[in-house]
Amino acid sequence: MDLPFIVATLTRRGLLTPGSPIRVASQLNALRTWGWSLAGELRQAAARDPGRPAVIDENGVELTYHDLLDRAERMARSMRAGLGVQAGDRIGVLCRNHSGLIETIVAATLLGVDAVLVNTGLSAAQLGTVAEEQRLRLLVHDDEFAERVLGLPAELSRLDERAREELVAGALPGDLHPPERDGRIIVLTSGTTGTPKGARRPTPSGFGPLVSIIDRIPLHARDRVMIAAPIFHTWGFAALQVCLALRATIVLHRRFDPAATLAALTAHQCNALFAVPVMVQRLMEVPPPDPRPPLTVVAVSGSALPGGLAPKFMDVYGDVLYNLYGSTEVSWASIAGPQDLRQAPTAAGRPPHGTRLELLDDDGQPVPDGRVGRIFVGNEMLFEGYTSGANRETRDGLLDTGDLGRLNADGLLFVDGRADDMIVSGGENVFPSEVEDLLAQLPQVREAAVIGVPDPEYGQRLSAFLALHPGETLDPEAVREYVRHFLARFSVPRDVIFVKYLPRNATGKVLTRELRRYYG
User: Is the dihedral of CA 19, 22, 23, 25 positive or negative?
Assistant: First the structure.
């Protein structure tokens, strides 16, 4: 990435403002010594703004950047001296969004330890598989998961919240030096179809990744930001990285509640919110506060925006919505801003600076605008492969996302869905997202999902699962007639099933395997 662009963006976002020469020198030295790992980012923030609130929890308790770094260092020293954790080990982190999660991940990177971010929605059986496949040396977990970890091997050390606090409080004095190897952050894939895979995230090598994001999403130094997206997910972790780089004040709640989130945004005067789309949908189901929180950015990622949600949200909270399309493997691919979403509410946007995006056919040739192709992406933060040793297909330095999409004449990307989710009914290709977006626009519908199920005549048929707003009713035939009016006959769901809610994982993705259980 070219230096003038980096300097211009950092200046525009307030990261190159003058400061105390001693603190600026200490900040730069922290990055030079520790790099752009999470430990380096926290160190530079603590060097420049030691007294600034770093984290505010749901009870209003604040930790300054100095305190957050001190606690992370104390935990690192205790893990090394008391538990024998050393560079190259792997620890699991099974925590919701709170300061202890940040301290644990930073402590791991200070030691050159790989931190496996464990999805809080995993079952006990899945957790056991992850512990075995990732060869965990230690598991740090919140108290609420105590029963879920009972069945793990006895030789796997475990730290609950009390034990973690004892490690921090009882740390012996000592120095920490940059480890011989960088610890990796291992993010588990969403696991909507089975046991998740571990994806090794690279450590940024400079300002490029940060600049790619904040050039398109107008976040600034010392913002006040609520991270509602789970930090164990790629999007929530990316939000944490950005916030530490910006020396932002981070507001965290362990669980998402729409009313509590709006209250916190107002009480702490947050100007930015990181969330997943279903959270934005839930915010629209409660009355907006008066006055509104001073939001200038609501950044979402992790799953597709439901049809019609973007303009409805912006009509209430202003043109502040930004939709990032990416994945655990490619990090980011494109970003849609408010103007894009006003023009096309389901748009995935355009690739940011330094990102290559191509739509290819099965032979690896580019497809023309308007035609569906496989989405390939290249940027500075492509993952380093799965911990199992497997990888994804690459072409000319671009990584296959596994998604299908198309570009319109204005260069906007639209994602039609996973390649393996495409439904072939009677020889016709149907993308569930197109039908889902249409169904979501029915005023009675709270959320919708469409899957393909086996059919003896057509090979597959469409099955629509609808969760309605309280007190609403719909007739299945009326639903089919509605779809028939707008789409081709092969896009009409043969089955229309009403459910109380759609099963989702912690990042908001619909668990299609749970829907298939309806058919046994």
Answer: positive
Whether omega for the bond prior to residue 291 falls within 30 degrees of 0, making it cis, is yes
**Residue 377 class from Cβ within 10 Å (0-12 exposed, 13-18 middle, 19+ buried)?**
buried
At 87, list the tokens: 């560079």
Distance separating alpha carbons of residues 283 and 262, to the nearest angstrom: 8
In 19-62, where does DSSP find H-type helix?
A: 21-34, 38-48
The predicted structure's pLDDT at residue 191: 53
- Read off the tokens for 197: 């895979």
Residues 6 or more apart from 9 whose CB is under 8 A from it? 211, 214, 215
Per-residue confidence (pLDDT) for residue 195, from 0 to 100: 67
pLDDT at 174: 87
Query: Which residues on neighbouring strands pair with residue 36, listed in sequence order?
Result: none
| Higher per-residue confidence, 328 vs 520 | 328
Q: What is the pTM of this model?
A: 0.90
Q: Which two tokens stand for residue 266?
A: 């107002």
* Closest to 325 in 3D by CA, of 310, 346, 298, 353: 346
Q: How distant, in Å, are the alpha carbons of 54, 84, 318 from that of 296?
A: 20, 45, 8
**495-499 vs 297-300, strand pairing mode:** unpaired
Does the pLDDT of residue 36 top 80, yes or no?
A: yes
Give 123's pLDDT tier (boundaries 50, 70, 90).
confident
- 99, 101, 103, 106: CA torsion to nearest 10: -140
Proportion of the chain above pLDDT 70, given as a percent: 98
Burial of 470 (0-12, 13-18, 19+ CB in 10 A): exposed
Please report, in angstroms and rounded to a whole number, the separation of the first and last CA atoms in the chain: 52
Alpha helices in 441-501 (DSSP H): 476-486
Report the distance separating Cα 126 and Cα 152, nearest Å: 11
Is residue 480 exposed (0-12), middle (13-18) or buried (19+ Cβ within 10 Å)? middle
Q: Which of 325, 272, 268 is nearest to 302 (CA)?
A: 325
| Residue 410 CB coordination number (10 Å) | 11
